Amino acid sequence: xxWEPVAIMIVLLGLGLWVVYGPSTPHxxxxxxxxxxxxxxxxxxxxEILGGAxxxxxxxxxxxxxxxRFLPRDGTPSRVIGERELRAVVGDSVLDQAIDASGNxxxxxxxxxxxxxxxxxxxxxxxxxxxxxxxxxxxxxxxRMKQSHIPESFWWFSFFGGVMLFTYFAWRQDPVGVLGQTSxxxxxxxxxxxxxxxxxxxxxxxxxxxxxxPP
Length: 215
Prior knowledge:
alpha+beta; elongated
């Protein structure tokens, strides 16, 4: 197996992770503050939280109240906003989710707000792993045969991976992902059906030949 494709994959993966986890905002956090990602319409950035939300037990800072700032990717930071004021605007549940996410390292890394989101993200990861698995199997089989070849397992990996990714993208309300998987799932299923029909025809032909016997 050639090492060059593996090296290129690693480089692309590193580039992608750098884009995802690189600095998302040019603004510096206040000393002792933590952050959680926010999206409002087309605007994205960080919600800065100062006041001990990430401390064990959720203890507040010496001031007795958390304070917040919106740090958009493009634009200037908002003014410092008190907790009562922000709760009155966004509601308790929304702000509580942001505070919980800021105090959970796993949630911050995965850019999610709770365990329910983690469950959906797991579906997406499994779907993507199946998609990677299909290409890995196809690549290994082709390398062994010394020619391009698509095994039946490729289509099964594609089908189940496509179904899971379609479900994940629909939950994320991602029209690009939904559009990409809609046609794929149907095509994968159709190829599996054609392979099964071909196998049944081949089996019937073998049986008919055995019944007739040698000429």
